[in-house]
Amino acid sequence: ATGADNDLHINQAVVFIEDAIQYRSINHRVDSKSLWLYRWYYSRICQWILGLTITVILALAFVETPSSLTVTSDVRYRHPPWDPPCGLTESIELLCLLVFVFDVSVKSYLIGWEEFCKTKWLMAYILTLVVSLTDWIVSLSFLCTETVRIRRILRPFFLLQNSSMMKKTLKSINSTLPEMASVVLLLAVHLSLFTMFAMLLFARTKDGQQDKEWVGYFRNLPDSLTSLLVLLTTANNPDVMIPAYSKNRAYSIFFILFTVLGNLFLMNLLTAIIYNQFRGYLLKSVQSSLFRRRVGIRAAFEVLCPLEETPANAQELCVSVGDLFQVLQKVEMDPRCKQAIIRSLKTSSCDRLSAAQFQKLFEELDKDAIKQHPPSPEYQSHFMQKLQFVFSHSYFGCLGNVVALANIISICVVLVMDADKQPSERDDFFLGAINCFFILYYLLETLLKILAMGFKRYWSYPSNRFDGLLTGILLILEISTFAVYGFPHPGWRPELMGLLSLWDMVRLVNMLIVFRFLRIIPNMKLMALVVTTLLDLVKNLRAFAGILVVVFYAFAITGIMLFKGAVVPMGNIRIFVPGHPLHQEAVLISKKKKCDFLAFLNHFQTIFIYHLCYLLSFNLICRWAKIYFIAWWLISSVIWVNLFVALLLENFIHKWDRHCHRESLSDIEYQRTVELMFRDVLEEPTEEELMERLHQHPHLHLCR
């Protein structure tokens, strides 16, 4: 092979290994120019620019008319929001769309026409850009006066298509929908049957005084269906049954049966089905990611083989260790993995690596990220060794937890005693004195731990960082309090002498002390297990959170277009806008209950609150608007919350199993990803499967 061919094979191996690290497909062009463009496209600066562009185009909704740039969301008190001139946000949007055009052009070129025709996401990407640019031109032709902007609803697609994990999650959700539909259909049947029973049971009578249940909740079919749907969410429980229960206690049997069948059986059955099905589909998705990684590593081995002169009597191809060193120098990967691979190569006595050895070498990528804590300092003095033993012992930490608990109890006692006192009647001497004592103890404890463990080892523990930072903040606040108000003395009064009153400073210190009490979590293993599960879940929740942002964004934009102009709220006055489609059944807004759909941020907050307390004021929403909110409830509460529960259960069960089979991890921290969660149950691809996939590569032609 010539020098140019050698460089090409080295660069191909570098790209294939980077594809394997990121679980990317290797079905792209592999000539020298395309490889340079490919690495440049996936470089940090390019991906950062693309991410910034997605953020900017999504954030435009906060600035565009109707603008969300107001201090308060209350329409009675806020000033008219700033409306950007026509062409300002449109110019920014055009720049973003041009970046996306360049993005899809590069992607399409790199994978080639054959792969492009197989990639539905890229075709949808181009269609979204065509529709967005067309709508942008129409918007400018109307001088930005049009109310319906289709491109605003399509913007979340740019976030969705840029994340492979979000695509896999969405595919898993889509595959789970048929099983979920059966239970949702059963819920609909349950709701319909009980609606008919309710209309028969609470029918109108001759005595109007006894018809409160009929008037309030079961007047007609839509109202009856709505009342029971809200009862399914328990948002109107027990209000919906009070009139009937006041008339006859036996009516409660109807509502109890409805709630037990709907909430305890059907909703939990839906959670079980979603957990079972979604876990299976997510496992398949992760299995596909593992296969991509193995294919990438094997492709790197195959392109490096021609660089090594294989003896005629050799039964299998080999790769030179020197060539692999050249590749590793160019590959961008986690330094921990790179150092581990290089260390394995140096300790190996072989000059050549077989396919199995090459693949095993890169299994380092699949291992947990292990963080070893630095060693403690070694003191020569016998006295210092004794001190080190005492202050690094777990009992010293337990003593600190007891002191923190005593601090919390003392704060509670003082707060209970001063609960009904006016600020001028309070004497903060006692609280200030005990806070001063406890903060000095926290400072002493921190210094002694640093002395015993060394600063590097002390700082390597997250609990110590949390503890040390809060202690530093408490010390600064205490010194500031003494500088302004002097030392605690009888008659300490919370006069305003600086930026904050003494009472405000003491309250801030107390809140931080209460927050500092969370330091006990690492010492309680079961509680620590729950907390680490939640933290790992947050780390691995980016794909789920991204799809949730997509759903929120799309519903918020749709709500703005549907409800804009339906009502002009002025205090308690209800003004219906003539000619509006929702004029006859406009949203009723009062001082106590009002929803603002005029601005994007307000609508975003409205549907978020709505997600937590579904249809708390359903009687204030017009009949056709109920369809919008029911769709939101089905997607957010029924489907998405159950998917979140499924991931939470899977993460916790995995953590619990590892906790039961692993010794104490005081000096080791393991970091897990979604892929590593399923690592124990994944199947390794066979040699035939890998080679079959490589021979199907549209741009790579192997010698064998």
UniProtKB/TrEMBL annotation:
One of its GO terms (cellular component) is late endosome membrane. It comes from Nothoprocta ornata. It catalyses: Ca(2+)(in) = Ca(2+)(out); Na(+)(in) = Na(+)(out). It comes from the Eukaryota. The chain crosses the membrane at residues 45-63, 122-143, 180-203, 251-275, 394-417, 429-448, 468-487, 499-521, 541-563, 597-621, 627-649. SUPFAM superfamilies: Voltage-gated potassium channels (SSF81324). Belongs to the calcium channel alpha-1 subunit (TC 1.A.1.11) family. Two pore calcium channel subfamily. Keywords: Calcium, Calcium channel, Calcium transport, Endosome, Glycoprotein, Ion channel, Ion transport, Lysosome, Membrane, Repeat, Transmembrane, Transmembrane helix, Transport, Voltage-gated channel. GO terms for biological process: calcium-mediated signaling; endocytosis involved in viral entry into host cell. It is a multi-pass membrane protein. InterPro entries: Ion_trans_dom, TPC2, Volt_channel_dom_sf. This is Two pore channel protein 2. It is found in: Late endosome membrane; Lysosome membrane. The lineage of its organism: Eukaryota, Metazoa, Chordata, Craniata, Vertebrata. One of its GO terms (molecular function) is ligand-gated sodium channel activity. The gene is Tpcn2_0.
